[in-house]
Automatic annotation (TrEMBL):
The keyword Membrane applies. Keywords: Membrane, Transmembrane, Transmembrane helix. The keyword Membrane applies. This is Integral membrane protein. The chain crosses the membrane at residues 21-41, 47-67. It comes from the Bacteria.
Length: 68
């Protein structure tokens, strides 16, 4: 089925789809959660942020596969 063109004359479409926005939101929340947990475990902030950043890429791959 063809999708209707949501862009009218003089209008721009969305930058990313709703699915992509949800995937990136969940990945960001997973990264923030990992950062907080690493900081609460006694790691210094640079290490905690590195842990959180390392969680984001696998979380994007994971949520991209399970959200269909």
């Amino acid at each position: 089925m063809a999708h209707a063109d949501r862009r009218g004359p003089g209008r721009d479409g969305p930058l990313i789809s709703q699915r992509a926005a949800i995937v990136f939101l969940l990945a960001a929340l997973a990264g923030i959660g990992a950062t907080v947990l690493a900081a609460l475990a006694g790691n210094v902030w640079p290490v905690a942020v590195s842990v959180g950043g390392g969680v984001v890429a696998p979380a994007v791959l994971f949520f991209n596969q399970i959200i269909d």
